[in-house]
Amino acid sequence: MSGRVLAAKALVVGVVALLTGLVGAGVVVPLGSAILRANDLTVLPVPALTQLRVVVGVAALLAVTAVLALALGRLVRLPAFVAVSLVVIPYVLAALPLLPDDVSRWLLRLTPAAAFAVQQTVTEYPQVVAHYAPSGGYFPLPGWAGLALLCGYAALALGLAVHRPRRRK
């Protein structure tokens, strides 16, 4: 497969995942907040622009993860669900209080799961003493940095997939 074909596939996969993510997150974020409020559960107030940032960020996360899955599939013949699991499993391990906080923070600094920071809507204040940990919804990187890290992994995998030596039959 030539680099142009792989780039075209990555573009199509990325755009489809982005549009699907925009629709999905665009429905779930406001609807989920409304359902929680209707059931008398506490939902922190979030400005509309922050909600929009979360929706667009989640859609971008899905798009870049889809491109990463395509590149890993081409590079090492991984099925798509395995490639997506490389992003999701570190997030699950860090978000659930299964690991020490420092290990969780490092997982969310070094792995593609750092991109889940686009979901963060709460702010850490230095004058407030609280448990600022991934299990509490606090990410060690800002959303843009986590997404940039995922983009770096996807770009590296895509570059390696393009320059992978062809196998002889």
UniProtKB/TrEMBL annotation:
Q: Which UniProt keywords apply?
A: Membrane, Transmembrane, Transmembrane helix
- Which residue ranges run through the membrane? 54-73, 80-99, 141-162
> What is this protein's name?
ABC-2 type transport system permease protein
Organism from which the protein derives: Nonomuraea cypriaca
